[in-house]
Amino acid sequence: MLYDFRSFVNPGHYAFGKGNLKHLGELIDRRKNKTNDWTVFMIDHFFQDKKETLDRLPIGEKDLVFFIDTKDEPKTTLVNKYRDQILAHQSTLPAVVIGMGGGTTMDYAKATGLMVTNEGDSKDYQGLDKIKNEGIYTIVIPTVSGTGAEVSMTAVLSGPEKKLGIKCDYTIPNEVLFDPELLSTVTDEDRFFTGMDNYIHNVESLNGTWITSMGKAFAEKSNEICVDVFMNKYPDRLEADEKMMVASIMGGNSITYAQVGVCHALSYGLAVVLETHHGVANCIAFNQLEQYYPEGYKQFKEMQAFQGVDIPKGITAGCSDEDLDRMVDVAWANEHMWNNAFGPEWEKHISKAELKELYKKM
Ligand SMILES: [Fe+2]
Predict the structure, then answer these.
(1) How far is the CA of 332 from the centre of ligand 1 (A)?
(2) Cα(157) to centroid of ligand 1, in Å?
(3) Which of 45, 56, 86, 134 is the most buried (most CB within 10 A)?
(4) How far is the centre of ligand 1, averaged over its atoms, from the C-alpha of 334 (Å)?
(5) Residue 32 Cα, ligand 1 centroid: separation in angstroms?
(6) From the CA of 299, how far away is ligand 1's center (Å)?
(7) How far apart are the CA of 319 and the centre of ligand 1, in A?
(8) Cα 85 to middle of ligand 1, angstroms
(9) Residue 35 Cα, ligand 1 centroid: separation in angstroms?
(10) Is 263:198 a contact under the CB 8 Å cutoff?
(11) Measured in angstroms, how far is the CA atom of residue 251 from the centroid of ligand 1?
(12) Sheet architecture: strand order including 137-142
């Protein structure tokens, strides 16, 4: 079964290369005009005390800087708050919104840039094609690889009831600045978890019913790079980081042209109820999915063993029956993911009771 017709959109501009951060000022200046002459910087809070990196950013007196707490997944309530602060900051709208960080920070920048020009509560825009107006010009700068947020049409947000992306043509970042040197501070563990997010995007695309030749080509190449990076020792980590930046772009495109599946649906339940970070939640869920993705599971376990990273276990042990049911409901609501995983009659292949058993094992 193929999804409805859609003409996909990619970021308008890419700049890829070591040391590219020094060109950020040029990219921003191109977008300024007499009226809209200031910038919003949304930066992962990890960099808050990294003076060396902050000093390289072209932050001017009129600009507004937010340090994004990335411990939790992006929330609709915070997007609304950032938007209100932006609207109160100057009498004009900003020319550019910068999102520098991992998937959480980039998704905040994408969603906030849209909410500046779309009235109301961001929770009312969760879903497909609900945004009315183009947002503020958004430049994202990934500092960790794997989420694919830098090229995806979705800004994934947790609202009061659901974890669901704002997804439309306008959600795509206008421009991406890739600088592999910015990945040097990522810990080996975080690098593994976000790298596995990428790996799982590809496994779910390749094993889904919505796979297309485009999605397949991106997913296969992306996972070739991913396995190379995580199954070999790279004396020069920068070389591996640069490769993973490319794998993340391709993995993001694999789900644009196909869709995620069982693991992402389950990980959303963990995110909403336990606030488990996306990459970690995916690994915890994928660790229980051998029956659905046997080949991917085998390779995942090999990479995990080679990297010597532990996947958390027992995180649902203290959950009440209501908590587990809520997780199941969040996962179940991602109909498009189940449809991709099993086809239009997906409810014949999986039940809420099975999901609950899977959650209990996590
Ligand atoms: Fe993901």
Answers:
(1) 17
(2) 12
(3) 86
(4) 14
(5) 33
(6) 18
(7) 24
(8) 29
(9) 38
(10) no
(11) 9
(12) 13-16, 175-178, 137-142, 96-101, 39-44, 64-68
Query: Domain segments of the chain: what residues?
Result: 13-183, 188-361
Same fold, 13-183 and 188-361: no
Question: For residue 194, how far is its CA from the centre of ligand 1 (angstroms)?
Answer: 8
CATH 3.40.50.1970 for domain 13-183, yes or no, is yes
CA–centroid distance, residue 234 to ligand 1 (Å):
25
149 C-alpha to ligand 1 centroid (Å): 8
The strand order across the sheet containing 127-128 reads: 127-128, 163-167, 154-158
- Span from the CA of 87 to the centroid of ligand 1 (angstroms): 31
Contacts 24+ apart (CB under 8 A), 286-295: 286/196, 286/200, 287/311, 287/313, 287/362, 288/358, 288/361, 288/362, 289/262, 289/263, 289/358, 292/207, 292/261, 292/262, 292/341, 293/203, 293/204, 293/207, 293/262, 293/263
Cα 190 to ligand 1 centre (Å) = 14
The answer as to CATH 1.20.1090.10 being correct for domain 188-361 is yes
Give dist(CA 131, CA 115) in Å, integer.
9
Residues 6+ apart with CB under 8 A from 213: none
Q: Could you read off the pLDDT tens digit of each residue along the chain, which spans 362 residues? A: 445 567 888 999 999 999 999 999 999 999 999 999 999 999 999 999 999 999 999 999 999 999 999 988 889 999 999 999 999 999 999 999 999 999 999 999 999 999 999 999 999 999 889 999 999 999 999 999 999 999 998 898 888 777 788 999 999 999 999 999 999 989 999 999 999 999 999 999 999 999 999 999 999 999 999 999 999 999 999 999 999 999 999 999 999 888 999 999 999 999 989 999 999 999 999 999 999 999 999 999 999 999 999 999 999 999 999 999 999 999 999 999 999 999 999 999 999 999 999 999 99
Alpha carbon of 180 to ligand 1 centroid (Å): 20
Instruction: Give CA–CA dist 100/58, Å, rounded.
Output: 13
Q: Are 106 and 172 in contact (CB under 8 A)?
A: no
